[in-house]
């Protein structure tokens, strides 16, 4: 899986004149992979970390124009992309099962749940929020396996 940071940068630059007039906002979808090393998908994680940093930097650049920019950083979300990953159906299920053991809430998110966060982030209710990475991951980033002593 490859992600190019050039696309969000180019789209942001093209949108700035319109967003200046409308006082609109920019929402990027990143990933919690930006904060977690994943040796099986290192370039995906690296590019998502770059998207997070792009958002922080552009928030500082765009704030004087009253343009907000934020990221949604979802965890495992049950989307068609999960089922179209490289590998057999059995391998994809094994990967999903592994991630579910790492998520304290023990389930993947539904895409509708992520859509609700995006709607909030775009709304006036979030008018004071810019340069933020909103992590919605079922607790994956706080997962801390414990070692039991007998």
Automatic annotation (TrEMBL):
Keywords: Oxidoreductase. InterPro entries: NAD(P)-bd_dom_sf, Sc_DH/Rdtase_CS, SDR_fam. PROSITE patterns: ADH_SHORT. It comes from the Eukaryota. GO terms for molecular function: oxidoreductase activity. SUPFAM superfamilies: NAD(P)-binding Rossmann-fold domains. PANTHER family: EG:BACR7A4.14 PROTEIN-RELATED (PTHR43975:SF2), ZGC:101858 (PTHR43975). This is Uncharacterized protein. It comes from Panagrolaimus davidi.
């Amino acid at each position: 899986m490859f992600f190019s940071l050039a696309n969000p940068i180019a789209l942001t630059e093209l949108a700035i004149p319109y967003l200046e007039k409308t006082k609109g906002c920019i929402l990027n979808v990143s990933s919690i992979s930006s904060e977690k090393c994943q040796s099986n998908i290192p370039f995906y994680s690296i590019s998502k970390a770059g998207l997070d940093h792009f958002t922080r930097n552009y928030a500082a650049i765009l704030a004087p124009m009253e343009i907000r920019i934020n990221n949604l950083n979802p965890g495992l979300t049950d989307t068609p992309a999960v089922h179209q990953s490289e590998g057999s159906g059995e391998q994809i299920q094994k990967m999903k099962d592994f991630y579910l053991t790492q998520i304290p809430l023990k389930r993947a998110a539904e895409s509708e749940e992520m859509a609700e966060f995006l709607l909030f982030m775009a709304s006036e209710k979030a008018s004071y929020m810019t340069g933020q990475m909103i992590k919605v991951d079922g607790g994956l980033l706080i997962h801390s396996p414990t070692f039991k002593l007998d």
